[in-house]
Specification:
Helix content is 59%, strand content 12%. It is α/β, with parallel strands linked by helices. Helix 4 runs parallel beside helix 5 (91-103) and helix 6 (118-132) crosses helix 7. Bound molecules: BIS(adenosine)-5'-tetraphosphate. The site of BIS(adenosine)-5'-tetraphosphate has 29 residues, from helix 1, helix 2, helix 3, helix 6 and helix 8.
């Protein structure tokens, strides 16, 4: 199986590139952000709790996101692999993911980290805020999301680096240019 963790700060293009990767490599897409937004849209108890956390730009508790991922991995019969988008965001989540995959007799193949300049992240997310009205795409929340990423999520990069699984891709440029770089890394 080809199991990829797509990594990077908010606005680095994880969701955008994940879509292109699943189309080409036929992997199962698992985005904790999308799963949480579906809970919010369905007005579930979990969604109501998650919304206030996400609107502040903080992380939803590990056990909640790990539980969601575990449930989704269990439902698919025989995927060629998984693409994890926006997950894991803490080392505890990364370790839990390893345990879930080990039970399925598989493991993470590689982590692809998208590198984008801070101002470009802010510009992209503000633009999406205007175009799509996502409630966490406002300047105050964006700045906190970037801070939370730097404080709590960057250690995940070292976790995969120490295992020799981390690959770094320049995430500046057009969507097509970045995808070409990702294809090279996967090859
Ligand atoms: P996510 O949904 O994961 O949101 P994100 O990090 O902002 O990235 P996303 O994938 O949506 O955007 P992309 O960069 O593709 O998380 C949202 C919140 O959910 C978190 O803050 C947290 O509260 C919670 N959460 C999610 N997962 C969690 C976890 N595991 N643990 C705890 N909490 C969790 O795109 C951004 C914009 O840039 C788009 O508009 C896109 O069109 C544009 N863009 C992309 N590539 C571009 C390019 N090359 N050039 C110009 N624009 C580009």
């Amino acid at each position: 199986m080809l199991n990829i963790v797509l990594f990077g700060p908010p606005g680095s293009g994880k969701g955008t590139q994940a879509e292109k990767i699943i189309n080409k490599y036929k992997l199962m897409h698992l985005s904790t952000g999308d799963l949480l937004r579906a809970e919010i849209a369905n007005k579930t108890e979990l969604g109501l709790k998650a919304k206030s956390i996400m609107d502040k730009g903080e992380l939803v508790p590990d056990e909640v996101v790990v539980g969601m991922i575990e449930k989704r991995i269990g439902t698919d019969k025989k995927p060629k692999g998984f693409i994890f988008d926006g997950f894991p965001r803490t080392v505890a989540q990364a370790k839990a993911l390893d345990a879930v995959l080990a039970r399925k007799k598989t493991s993470i193949t590689l982590m692809i980290s998208l590198d984008v300049k801070r101002q470009e992240l802010i510009n992209r997310l503000l633009k999406r805020g205007i175009e799509q009205g996502r409630s966490d795409d406002n300047l105050q929340t964006i700045e906190n999301r970037i801070k939370v990423y730097e404080d709590q999520t960057t250690p995940v990069m070292n976790y995969y680096d120490q295992q020799g699984k981390a690959k770094y891709v320049d995430g500046m440029g057009t969507i097509g240019e970045i995808f070409t770089r990702i294809e090279k890394v996967i090859k």
